[in-house]
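ARCHIVE CARD
Drawer: 12
Card no.: 0347
Subject: one protein chain, sequence and derived structure
Cross-reference: see card 0346
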Amino acid sequence: MSAIDSKPVPVQPPSQRAYVFAFATVYLVWGSTYLAIRVAVESMPPFALAAVRFALAGALLMAFLRVCGAAWPTPRQWRDAAVSGFFLLLGGNGLVTWAERSVPSGVTALLIGSGPLFVVLVEWVWPGGARPRALTAAGMLLGFAGVVWLAAPWEHAGAGALPPAGVAGILIACVSWAIGSIYGRHVRTPASSFTAAAAQMLAGSGSLALVAIARGEFSGWDLAATTARSWTAFAYLVLVGSLAGYSAFVWLVKHASAAQTATYAYVNPVVAVFLGWLLLGEPVGARTLGASAVILGAVVIVTLAKNRTRAV
């Protein structure tokens, strides 16, 4: 072999088309999952639905990875997947699925859009965490004010009222997602991104299944009464939401900057509100629009402040 032949082949950077496709997938797919969940829970029990969804998605992804030669997770990696899956999928997604039985999909997405604010809060109280700087703290206060405005706890009846239990479930889901995300950053000897995702979905589906069994959801699930509309939404959640959407997100984490990748938190709620209004006729009033502008503006402030702090 000549010296020329032995030189390493330069790695070509991803094309602009690949970036556009990945961002479009994360923006549109993840933004549309709120609508799909809302439709699925019309005739499916929430925790059982989520358990089966992630069990199927995790099994498909793990099988594909094994065929491609990926290593099986170690016992420690399975343990970490069980912990992160508990917070991300049971606490994060399971409670959202349950809450969407009574909370419109667009409002759910707007409340979930405040997630970065809860991440900062959890990072603060995490062992060794740093106190937020003034700009970050101001953005957090602004964002939480927007959440209160959107939830409007002073309204107990009427078209604009939201169920307190559903809103509380979504906010607890934000905290749980933040805990799971931060825990994942501190994992020792983590598995590869896709293997970890598959393990999290499989382990998390187990936690979801236990809650569904305790609530009697599997025994009470009347498959004959489950509508074709809900089955279609369920298939979309498994194949598109859990597989295509997450795969695109993992690819962006590797190839795009953190600031660019974080833009999904701004776009997903807008997509969800629009789809909920267009396809389900969900109302979009002045309070929803005003509160969403406050929440998204706060998330932008917090994200930019965090990125500036890391650059210092």
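Annotation on reverse: The CA atoms of residues 111 and 147 lie 7 Å apart. The mean pLDDT is 86.
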